[in-house]
Amino acid sequence: MERGFYTIMAAQFFSSLADNALLVVAIALLIDLNAPAYLTPMLKFVFVLFYVILAPFVGAFADSMAKGRVMFVSNTIKIAGCSLLFFAMHQYFALAAYAIVGLGAAAYSPAKYGILTELLPPEQLVTANGWIEGLTVASIVLGTVLGGVLITPSVATLMLSFDFPLINTGIDSAVEASIIIIGVSYAIAAIFNLFIPDTGVDHRILKFNPVFLVHEFSHCVKLLWADKLGQISLAVTTLFWGAGATLQFIVLKWAEAALDFPLNQAAQLQGVVALGIAIGAVLAAKIVSLRQSVKVIPLGMLMVIVVMIMTLVSSLWIAIALLILIGGLAGFFVVPMNALLQHRGHILMGAGHSIAVQNFNENLSILAMLLLYALLIWLDVHIYVVIILFGLFVSISMTIIRKWHLTNQSKEDSLHLIGMRKIH
């Protein structure tokens, strides 16, 4: 791997660590503010909202300058949102502050993934994605655990008892102390961003007209959905990330109902799922090549079956084993799909634009599924019923996608498309 790849990994780790710890702390903040339960999934909703709204523009932004600089600017926006969350005194102000963190994340993502296709040859993309996803998921594990630990009463008491000599920090709650610690992680990520190498790719953008960018983005969306391999990998990742975001909150609610866990312990179970994803991602990087990527689709259907089995579990250790298995299956099938999508997108339209299209579709799926989940919670539907409905929806969708791929395969060989040269 190129030396700069490891700098990218370090920057991604600390930025993602902060993102995931902040979600747990933001949920704790809403609880402190006596917000209704249906507002909890709305945190993720406002976070990903800018991914959808700014999708036509962030790809061009990512391609307009060196990717390391884009990532630095984006992390600075995250720090601003995190700082505003520190001063949140009302539930809707907290949502607005967290949305600003999402704005930074939306700008960050196309650069984070787009630089891989600039820095590395296609044959290393699955391996690189495996390491990036594995490290990202490791940061999710540590981030969710960190967030849970920071709001644990004993740790909160310890943090609040600490004072700098001669300085009044003005910190009055565990949430405020946690936000400061998370802000430091964002700052470390920003420092690593400054050392990401310029790949030498021409970053001149021909037009900055918003109307042109929207039109161009619309063309890119149609182009990727029309591609025989692009449409399958995009459909799989779109469904996966929508389901994954919803599963985060399902695990929290399930842990409360089945195991009587408070938020800090339930958050650590989220980390268990992420640990499984890391294992699956690393295995995929070692075993699955780009040319074999479409063969992993059935694992998505198997994962959903295991999710539905969770409704029968009341033992912590059985739950941990199943959550690791769920994560492992998810990581093993999404990493090759993600690499294939990046490869096809890079061939058809360029790295930044293709990642922006991917983010738009995936986060539109997240918004839709989180809204549906929030509605079910608002209607007071039992979490076990929610899990069964969730599993049925995802399994039926995966079956349709697999049949779609087999139909495409009968018309054109996917190996030919994977090896296709860049379109001019």
Question: How would you portray this structure in words?
Answer:
- The protein is mainly alpha-helical.
- It has one domain (about 5-195, about 210-420): MFS general substrate transporter like domains (Growth Hormone, Chain: A), CATH 1.20.1250.20.
- It has helices spanning about 5-30, 40-55, 55-65, 65-85, 90-120, 125-150, 155-160, 175-195, 210-225, 230-260, 265-285, 300-310, 315-350, 350-380, 385-410, 415-420.
- It starts with a helix and ends in a 6-residue tail after the last helix.
Strand element count: 0
What is the fold-level CATH name, i.e. the topology?
A: Growth Hormone, Chain: A
Q: Shape, please?
A: globular
Q: Quick one: CATH superfamily?
A: MFS general substrate transporter like domains
The rounded Rg comes to 21 Å
Based on the structure given, which CATH architecture is correct? Up-down Bundle
Low-confidence stretches: 165-169, 420-424
Averaged pLDDT: 80
CATH class, anyone? Mainly Alpha
C-alpha termini separation: 28 Å
Helix-strand string: HHHHHHHHHHHHHHHH
Estimate the strand proportion.
under 5%
Number of alpha- plus pi-helical segments: 16
Largest sheet: none
Determine the structural class based on helices, strands and strand pairing: mainly alpha
- Work out the count of structural domains: 1
Q: How much helix, percentage-wise, in residues?
A: over 70%
